[in-house]
Specification:
The chain is 52% helix and 0% strand. It has 161 residues and is mostly helical.
Length: 161
Amino acid sequence: MLRYLPFLLVLALWIYAFIDCLNTPESQVRGLPKVAWVFIILLFGEVLIGPIAWLVAGRPRDRAPNGRGGTPAEWHRNSGAAWVAPDDNPEFLRSLREENKKDETLLKDWEADLRRREEELRRKEAGPGDGPKDADGSGAGGSGDGPGGRKGPEETPPAAS
C-alpha cells in the first residue's frame, strides 16, 4: 500500500492545482493567461512541474482582494458581524410581528367574507318559503302543510303496512 502513496500524492496535487486554476478568476491569475496555466498543469502534472509552477508563480498571492476570504470559512471569519440568534434579533422579531399583523387582517377578512356568505345563504334558503300567511297561520299552500307546502314529521300520517 505504501508504494502507491507517492503516486496518490502527485495525483492529489495535480487535481488540486487544476481545480484551483479553474476556479481562479482570470483577472487574478499571474504571469500567463489562465488557459496557458491550465495546459501547463495538465501537460506537466505527472512530474509535478505544472502544479508546483502554478502554486508558486501563477496563483494569486492575495486571496482576498475585497477584504473577504477565499473560502466560505474565511468569509465567515472575516465577516465582522457577530451572529445573533433569531429570538434575540430585533429585526427578525419585528418581521414576525409584521407577518402576524398581516395574518390577523387576512383572517378577519376571511371571517367577514364567511359571515357574509352564510347570511346570503340563509336569505336564499328562507326567502322562497316565507310567503304571506293565511288566516289559519298556514303558508301560501293553504292546506295546513309545513313551510313551502311540505308536511312536517308530526303532520305526516303513518304509512299503511
